[in-house]
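Re: the 196-residue chain
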Amino acid sequence: MTVTLTSSKLTIEDILWTSRQPSNLNYLRTNGFLFAVTKLPKVSYFCQAANIPSLTLGTAIQQTPFVDIPHPGDKLVFDQLSIRFMVQENLENFMELYTWMIGLGFPVSRDQFRTYVNTYADRYPQLKSELPQLSDATLLVLDNSNNPVAQFNFTDCFPTSLTNMEFDISDGQAKYFQVTATFAFTSYTTESLLTT
């Protein structure tokens, strides 16, 4: 069989799949990750799931008498960062997040925020932030051999929600709590850790 190309821009090698075959045929695992929030070491240790938030680029529409023409927008919108973690028996990691949210929301008095900021400064002296109510986070992606291949760095995170824990004795089985926390953040960057 003879293949004849009418375009001078393409060659047989450009079209055949063998010339476009990737060097790495392994798939990314859903359980190949490590997640860490600087201010939540115990939550990080028990983390069971984390996401890479979606991002959306808006469009600017140019009006014309005919079909409107879309152009790339100038503002990215990031979805929220979400994690799920196992709750320790003594609620220590749950309280890390609870205390952070109470400090941010100060439901009783403004002193709660001040107390939280001072506690933060004493607990994490290595962090020199102008906004001590925020924290950075990192999601490390691992390959099939558990070697890091990529790093996602989230800037200026703070928790926006923490799901409930419902105790129930009717089932008769011992189940362990997992709760979900969501975070807002300014932006995230990606970094390849592959050595070439």
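The first strand starts at residue 33 and ends at 37.
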